[in-house]
């Protein structure tokens, strides 16, 4: 029987909750494997789940930690060993000093380390020295690469997230999406990166799907959005999807019907599945066949009222 995925392990229902799910490509036993670190936060729980994929796409849940307050603090520091194709993989974590803000993912004071063959193949968090001391393992020759990050945030008018657009960057960028749907004027939307408005969409009812390219510290970033449910779903609630994809967009097709092809591409890349699958078909469409040729950041913004 297949183990649950990281997304399933951080949520027990279809009720939207804050989450940050990062998928890394790491070398384990000479093979590239997906290692997913998922943080989930609701009104009653706060969890961490780490999974390691096997070649047959079966997820092995390496560890799941409930970040509730005392008396459950004993789980905030520990380790667990799992078998991945007859190879031992150790997961170490220390979350005792982790600091959280609005995001489900801590901002500092923690580490998560994945060890195979006495090498740290993945290290997440800022307590790197503590991690190497605890694991007693050497740094892997090939660093794990972050290939997909998906963040779900809840809000009314303003939605905040953080991500990097380049592995060489030391600090994450602040992304803020603000809308004026509930106002008396025609709805508008602003997408800001590091305090600067990068995209302003007027007449949002007519431009609820679209894309554009912005430059962030000399890095081109494609931005795609679909806010259909914000505007047209009943009761004023719904999920909007934003995709941030570093890199230069492909050249436009030379055919006369380029506009039609562009509209079709935007629809394919931005529209989420109706069944609430965050990142299924849209993920594959936007990031390429297996999703690991280039980095994509998905922001799912749930408008709560």
Automatic annotation (TrEMBL):
This is DUF868 family protein. Residues 248-283 are annotated as: Disordered. Coiled coil: none annotated. Residues 259-277 have a biased composition (Acidic residues). InterPro entries: DUF868_pln. It comes from Canna indica. Transmembrane segments: none annotated.
